[in-house]
Amino acid sequence: MTLKITADQADDLLDVSGGKPGETVDQLTYVTTIKGDQRRWMQGITIVVSDPDGAHWGLSYDHGLTENQDSEYPWRGYSGERKDVELTRMYAHTITKAVYRATPPGAAEKPGTPDIARQVLDLALPDNDSGTDTVRGYLTALLALVWEHEQGFNGKRPFGNSGWQDDLYAPLVRAGLVEGSFDEDGHLEAVDAAAEQLIQAAIDELGKATA
Predict the structure, then answer these.
(1) 96 lies in the same domain as 166
(2) What's the predicted TM-score (pTM) here?
(3) What CA–CA distance (Å, rounded) separates 37 from 20?
């Protein structure tokens, strides 16, 4: 299944892919950018967008890795001609570094993959309001507060400040487990929805008995 767009629309999507998710081009909404494996001179890039029906599509091109290697865009011909380009249907995967792929999720990739969940639990945290230094410690401290305060637990500011989920999402981005970005002050400004699924997988793993 494919979706065809014009060269001008492709250029516009390329432009918005440098900004924040949510920008639109003719009813196509920018979601994220996937960076593929680096080859000698090129790196494959896929811009993921969603259509009005909620389906996701990928616009792919090759990005030049050196100043002497031009990027190659399928909608721009070598002689300057411009042509329509087909987008590839993309599917959301639950736990994967690249949240969207050109194949539907397979049975081998299920929420709560133990190795990834344990990796998340062991991620180091910078100084934070919980006073803990790993995701595991943070989640444990959070549970202790729920137990201590019962119905008086403050879910909006459990450790004193709102936006506390970013304390957990930021290390996922820094570890390359999900896509995201930081502002010039180092604060998290955007993160893929897969971050929430990874934390849920970590919580599930935390509740499992160890041998």
Answers:
(1) no
(2) 0.47
(3) 23
